[in-house]
């Protein structure tokens, strides 16, 4: 394998890790050697995701792979941080077969990103985090003029406020250890506009300014901050829309230069790359994974 693509010794948190794109991100990060925490409000789904990814994990290659819990490379040890062994395995919601002590590379920890107290509790229990993938997101689709401000508030809390608070709480550990990765999963809907998604797009567009500012503030500590924007991606969310409006998804796919919907794996590939040392010089960027729909 090309140098600089392994993540052995790193710990990654993936919010919304039990969802379609989140699961693909967890799989890729774990396959590169990271210890991964599936952070999701849907605890049974998070536990099932962690268990499935651990069960599907191939035997480690000789010489590759670090002990679970990591810390075998520069920038992974907290300076005066929580004691070794503290981490997701000690937190709430750890299911059978997903504890680090069991040799699990993927663990899970419940968090409700709409609730600041839950986020604070999560950050207090998760242990040192090197890679933070802000993937969770909710979308309420309705014409803007008839949309309900209660829905705006929920999307603001989950899609933008939660990434802000999580970063505020977890970035200091990355800067102290001198290495970190922040990846924000936004949406092409925020770059290009998307009918029925005014409030969603507003919250997702907020991530652009946040990520660029963090890229500047954290650069000297070797922490990069980037945004990944999926275009239409073949997920249960999109299939639900297709069930309501038959033919819409085919129509969308025909309008994509690469003539197909994206897959969760397409998105995960870019997220994973941004987390590696090969992407050490890429920061403050907003990149679409959309088959060419958005070219900027
Ligand atoms: N699917 C697409 O076509 C598409 C397109 C553009 C952007 N995106 C973005 O990609 C990301 C992932 O999308 P997906 O299609 O995999 O969605 P998904 O609905 O499959 O997964 C979202 C996950 O977030 C979790 N979640 C929701 N609310 C939460 C909360 N309050 N606290 C913690 N977790 C919560 C859900 O339980 C779920 O596991 C989202 O941010 C979405 O906005 C998706």
From TrEMBL:
Which InterPro entries does the annotation name? NAD(P)-bd_dom_sf, Sc_DH/Rdtase_CS, SDR, SDR_fam
The record, for Pfam families, names:
adh_short, adh_short_C2
Q: Where is this region: Disordered?
A: 59-103
Which BP terms from GO are recorded?
Answer: monocarboxylic acid metabolic process
Q: Where is the composition biased (Gly residues)?
A: 82-100
Q: Which family does it belong to?
A: Belongs to the short-chain dehydrogenases/reductases (SDR) family.
The molecule here is called: 2-hydroxycyclohexanecarboxyl-CoA dehydrogenase
